[in-house]
Amino acid sequence: MSLHIWRVLDKAWNFKLLPIGFGFFSQIRQSYHLSFGCWLHIVSQDIQSHSTLSATYETKIQYLPLEESEIRLFILYPGSDEDAVSGRIEHSSWGFNSNKQYEALSYVWGDVRDSVAILVDGRTVSVTKSLETALRHLRYRDKPRTLWVDYVCINQEDIPERSKQVARMGLIYEQASSVLIWLGLATVNSGVGMEILRYFATEKRPQSCPVWQAYPQSLVHQGLLDVMNRPWFERMWVVQEVGRSHRAIFFCGRDCVQWSTSSIDVRRFIRMIKYAEILPQWTQLGLDTVNMRPLLEMLDFQDANSFSKPWGSCDRAAPDLLDLAYNLRYKKCSDPRDKIFGIWGMVDYLWHLEDFKVDYSMTVTQVYEEVARVSFSSHYG
């Protein structure tokens, strides 16, 4: 929640109030910050406490083999904040003829050593703290939620399966009803940043007094910086995950920003950001120091999926593997091979190369030698 009065002096005092928890075993508490100058701003901040599940008896997920036309889905059980995160895995037919509805999660894994326990099929299993926090916030209180989550829906220890599923990820995200983008917990500043993104995503045209001019300068700068500096925007995989989505939703704690990915809506979203960035007021507020490029890049790929498909057409050519890898070379991933595999689903002609597939048994050197081969082939320029 937020309440503000237009500032007269750009001076603020900030006090952190005592956390408020609902339920003795609640993992999520609310910490409130009070800021004031000649304006007043009250915000809530999520606080993550320890997992309610003991990690003493952790086991591994018991995976059954996947058929060629199957994917796994995670049925996230409903629960309140004090309940442990739990769900089950089920196999589902996959492809354009499947009528199974699911949402795909886009998030940062985080440090795999920083793990907590959840219940999967009644077994206590270890997942990254980042994933557990996302699932805790995204689950419904009164009904299950069907998700595709790479960490639990792919047997990460089965290299052939992992290779096949990663090669399909572009289509998995494209066929999802929504892509849920988990940016992390809310902070004292994130609410203003999310409100600015919501303005860009939902307004039909620029307003005479945009939301980023309605708050004190210090709040606007810190809020937008808080959201846009989230690690999610640095990841290689998110370009494909959002670029192929049909509907996307940012989540920052309980706060969300959603937009339709129709070509008209996405192009309007892009133009709203670009228009704001050329305004003198944007620079005067110091907002030109906030890097909006990662968001614009993903929206650009999302614009009509930004590439040709064999079952349709659009007014933009398919991207070349080398050009795409070069433009996104600054993106982060823990495995150097994922600099290539992470953009696989955006380069259509790779599907037709029987001798170059996503294969985690290949060494890093072999992967990049294949990039050189297909990029300099006479068939592809």
TrEMBL record:
Superkingdom of the source species: Eukaryota
Short name of any one Pfam family annotated for the protein: HET
Residue span(s) of domain Heterokaryon incompatibility: 102-241
Name assigned to this protein: HET-domain-containing protein
Organism: Hyaloscypha variabilis (strain UAMH 11265 / GT02V1 / F)
